[in-house]
From TrEMBL:
<dbReference type="GO" id="GO:0005886">
    <property type="term" value="C:plasma membrane"/>
</dbReference>
<dbReference type="InterPro" id="IPR003439">
    <property type="entry name" value="ABC_transporter-like_ATP-bd"/>
</dbReference>
<protein>
    <recommendedName>
        <fullName>Autoinducer 2 import ATP-binding protein LsrA</fullName>
        <ecNumber>7.6.2.13</ecNumber>
    </recommendedName>
</protein>
<feature type="domain" description="ABC transporter">
    <location>
        <begin position="252"/>
        <end position="491"/>
    </location>
</feature>
<comment type="function">
    <text>Part of the ABC transporter complex LsrABCD involved in autoinducer 2 (AI-2) import. Responsible for energy coupling to the transport system.</text>
</comment>
<dbReference type="GO" id="GO:0005524">
    <property type="term" value="F:ATP binding"/>
</dbReference>
<dbReference type="InterPro" id="IPR017871">
    <property type="entry name" value="ABC_transporter-like_CS"/>
</dbReference>
<feature type="domain" description="ABC transporter">
    <location>
        <begin position="7"/>
        <end position="241"/>
    </location>
</feature>
<keyword id="KW-0547">Nucleotide-binding</keyword>
<dbReference type="InterPro" id="IPR050107">
    <property type="entry name" value="ABC_carbohydrate_import_ATPase"/>
</dbReference>
<keyword id="KW-0067">ATP-binding</keyword>
<dbReference type="InterPro" id="IPR003593">
    <property type="entry name" value="AAA+_ATPase"/>
</dbReference>
<comment type="subunit">
    <text>The complex is composed of two ATP-binding proteins (LsrA), two transmembrane proteins (LsrC and LsrD) and a solute-binding protein (LsrB).</text>
</comment>
<dbReference type="Pfam" id="PF00005">
    <property type="entry name" value="ABC_tran"/>
</dbReference>
<comment type="similarity">
    <text>Belongs to the ABC transporter superfamily. AI-2 autoinducer porter (TC 3.A.1.2.8) family.</text>
</comment>
<dbReference type="InterPro" id="IPR027417">
    <property type="entry name" value="P-loop_NTPase"/>
</dbReference>
<dbReference type="GO" id="GO:0016887">
    <property type="term" value="F:ATP hydrolysis activity"/>
</dbReference>
């Protein structure tokens, strides 16, 4: 039986100046299909999505067909009218309005309707999606991120969307919430076709029917998901063979560097105690809302614990703020690099040296030559891809921004490095380099606390694993043949 095609792109090219971002790309989306679009940062995925959504115009000669009909002039309003909706990574809901108002506002229902009609329509849509647990009268600000994603999907249904583009939809979701989202997508497949963009390749295999790989602006591979192996997919993305085993350090566990005793902060974490040794990678896992990030912020003095003590090298310390934490050798690599970790408008050099300026201070001011040399060495060692150290960080891919953030804290000579979601939102190549870097730091005697939602990544990197549930450490074990399913059960049930 011949596949029904709802969207087809032919000869898609896009240039920015002399840089060819997309080069003769062809793409087909079948009716009722979940089609994953994958590739490293900078491969052209975002530009292709913007072209499909009518936000960017391709070069002359490009052809876009919806239901076999050539789209003469694409625009955001025109593509929305044809049933194309984009769910971006950043949630675009009116947080002060109700679920019903967010779902039905501006939908093509004809005329202006009172709230009761909004509530009735929203309830009908959510029930059809299997989302009976969401109260349509609740303000969106009270919903979890996962529930807000479902509201966005419901809004797409209300808009009579036929093509939904989902950009990294699971980046802030727990494993259980991811499965809920996938169940909903599967229920909608009769009405909606999905273009699914993600760096999480395990999830790509779970949800997608077909996969297209972009590399350097070209289609590197395209076939049913069942015909790809994990290794095939990675090699298509990178254009080379890659060893997917995690580079673990070989050093032995050293003396205790840091110990936390009885850390408590109301409604966030209770009676938390653990230690980190020199050269040890300790994984801290838990569902979204378990209190992992809040605990880290307490350790660096950004959010003062109500109770508890922290010891460094056996000596009791009182950390009053981030600056003092850094001075004592505790550095925190934030999960939100754009808001809290980097100066996006500033250069790579400025960011790398910003937390260690004393190193480059001379009698007559900053030693710019020494600062430049240190930045160049970091760029080469960590593998930051950029024209040079003067490039603004905002122009870098997510993976390269993350490497700049690592460089910033490495220059502070940390004794203990807390990394919060260190590989979130980066491509497979950058992930490998980040894990290599963590192993290298541990090999040099740095104690590492690795907070991550990626259970398999923690299992591959950590020496010891702590499980957090509702603000408490409920399980601790040495990572020696640890099973993921057992840890997941502890994460959920405590």
């Amino acid at each position: 039986m011949k596949e029904e095609v709802i969207l087809e792109l032919k000869h898609i090219q896009k240039k920015y100046g002399n840089h060819l971002v997309l080069d003769d790309v062809t793409f087909r989306l079948g009716k009722g299909e979940v089609h994953a679009l994958v590739g490293e940062n900078g491969a052209g995925k975002s530009t292709l999505v913007k072209i499909i959504a009518g936000l960017v115009r391709p070069e002359p000669g490009a052809q876009i067909y919806i239901d076999g009909e050539l789209v003469q002039k694409s625009s955001p309003a025109g593509m929305l009218e044809k049933g194309v909706t984009v769910m971006y990574q950043d949630i675009s809901l009116f947080q002060n309005l109700s679920v019903a108002e967010n779902i039905c506002m501006d939908c093509r229902m004809g005329g202006i309707f009172p709230k009761k009609r909004f509530y009735r329509e929203a309830r009908k849509i959510l029930d059809s999606m299997g989302c009976r647990q969401i109260d349509v009268s609740t303000p969106c600000s009270r919903l979890s991120i996962a529930q807000q994603q479902l509201v966005l999907l419901a809004r797409a249904v209300c808009f009579k969307a036929r093509i939904v583009i989902m950009d990294e939809p699971t980046s802030a979701l727990s494993s259980r919430e991811v499965q809920l989202l996938y169940e909903t997508i599967r229920k909608l497949k009769k009405e909606v076709s999905v273009i699914y963009i993600s760096h999480k390749l395990d999830e790509v295999f779970q949800i997608s029917d077909r996969i297209t790989v972009l590399r350097d602006g070209k289609v590197a591979a395209e076939k049913p998901a069942a015909e790809f192996s994990y290794q095939d997919l990675v090699e298509a993305m990178l254009g080379k063979k890659m060893d997917l085993s995690r580079p673990h350090h070989t050093g032995r566990r050293g003396k205790e560097l840091l110990r936390v005793e009885g850390f408590t902060r109301d409604h966030q974490y209770q009676d938390v105690s653990f230690s980190i040794a020199a050269g040890e990678i300790v994984g801290l896992i838990g569902l979204v809302g378990a209190g992992r990030t809040e605990l880290a912020l307490g350790m660096i003095g950004a959010q003062k614990p109500k109770e508890g003590q922290l010891f460094l090298n056996g000596k009791k310390e009182k950390i009053r703020g981030i600056k003092e934490a850094v001075e004592k050798g505790i550095c925190y690599l934030t999960e939100d690099r754009a808001r809290y970790g980097l100066f996006l408008e500033k250069s790579i050099e400025h960011n790398i040296t910003s937390a260690s300026l004393k190193k480059f201070a001379g009698r007559l001011g900053m030693d710019r030559k020494k600062e430049a040399q240190a930045s160049d060495e970091s760029i080469a060692h960590i593998g930051i891809k950029a024209p040079d150290r003067t490039e603004a960080v905002k122009n870098l891919s997510g993976g390269n921004q993350q490497k700049v953030l690592f460089s910033k804290w490495i220059h502070s000579d940390p004794k203990v490095l807390i990394v919060d979601e260190p590989a979130a939102g980066v491509d497979i190549g950058a992930k490998q380099e980040i894990y290599r870097l963590l192993a290298e730091l541990a090999g040099q005697g740095v104690g590492i606390l690795m907070i991550s939602s990626e259970l398999n990544e923690v299992l591959a990197a950590a020496d010891r694993i702590l499980v957090m549930n509702h603000g408490r450490i409920v399980h601790t074990e040495v990572n020696d043949g640890t099973e993921a399913d057992r840890l997941l059960e502890k994460m959920i049930t405590g």
